[in-house]
């Protein structure tokens, strides 16, 4: 019996012109490892002052990454939360303590659909294939879920699952992610990630979810590069999220 292929997906969050300075040394180090396709979660206008339309050089960089076999996915539109002030304790926690960037956490179906259409139109304008949408901080309102059911996208995700669209069927896809804003958070993140990696040794896929802040500290940056190199050395095949999903679908169809 042939052993199932084990995969690793390298995912760069919050991709924008202003975050490229954080990611560039890491991406160059990954490229030096060999052919490792990545999924780039692209924000069309990061924090409303970093529009892709105003940065042709960065768009050319993304063109080149697509040409290398990388995947670009839509990651919100502004990646900030400028909706009306929270009105409940839970909303206050989610939108002011947990994150200030849950752009799609409170959007109605119509508002979410308008913002998603704007993002997809930008991808189309620059001839970037797009299959996935990932909400900032993985937070989605019911209205956002309704909107996603109406769009020609293949998947969305949360920290531990990929969801096929439009029916939101869940697929286990465990992911490692850090909170790297302070030294104690980085230390705790490494402990938790090491434990999870051991627990997931037999998982068909492990996702590595990186953020720009991870790249600003040698401790966290080295962790991600070392972890990727180790998983590759252990025989995991690097794939983009959409390629892994396509492979999973093919396996299901062959088994049917």
UniProtKB/TrEMBL annotation:
Cross-referenced Pfam families: DUF2334 (PF10096)
Name of protein: Deacetylase
Lineage, broadest ranks: Bacteria, Pseudomonadati, Pseudomonadota, Gammaproteobacteria, Pseudomonadales
GO biological process: carbohydrate metabolic process
Coiled-coil zones: none
């Amino acid at each position: 019996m042939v052993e199932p292929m084990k995969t690793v997906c390298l995912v760069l969050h919050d991709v924008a012109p202003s975050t490229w300075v954080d990611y560039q040394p890491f991406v160059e180090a990954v490229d030096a490892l060999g052919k490792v396709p990545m999924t780039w979660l692209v924000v069309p206008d990061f924090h409303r002052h970093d529009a892709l339309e105003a940065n042709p050089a960065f768009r050319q960089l993304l063109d080149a990454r697509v040409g290398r076999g990388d995947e670009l996915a839509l990651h919100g539109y502004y990646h900030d939360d400028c909706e009306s002030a929270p009105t409940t304790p839970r909303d206050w926690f989610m939108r002011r303590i947990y994150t200030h960037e849950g752009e799609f956490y409170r959007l109605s179906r119509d508002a979410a659909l308008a913002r998603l259409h704007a993002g997809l139109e930008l991808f189309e304008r620059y001839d970037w294939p797009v299959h996935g949408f990932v909400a900032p901080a993985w937070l989605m309102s019911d209205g956002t879920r309704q909107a996603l059911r109406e769009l020609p996208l293949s998947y969305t995700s949360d920290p531990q699952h990929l969801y096929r669209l439009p029916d939101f069927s869940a697929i286990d896809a465990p992911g490692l992610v850090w909170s790297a804003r302070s030294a104690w958070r980085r230390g705790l993140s490494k402990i938790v990630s090491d434990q999870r990696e051991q627990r997931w040794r037999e998982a068909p896929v492990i996702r590595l979810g990186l953020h720009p802040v991870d790249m600003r500290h040698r401790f966290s940056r080295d962790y991600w590069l070392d972890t990727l190199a180790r998983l590759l050395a252990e025989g995991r095949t690097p794939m983009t999220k959409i390629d892994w999903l396509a492979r999973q679908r093919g396996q299901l169809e062959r088994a049917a």
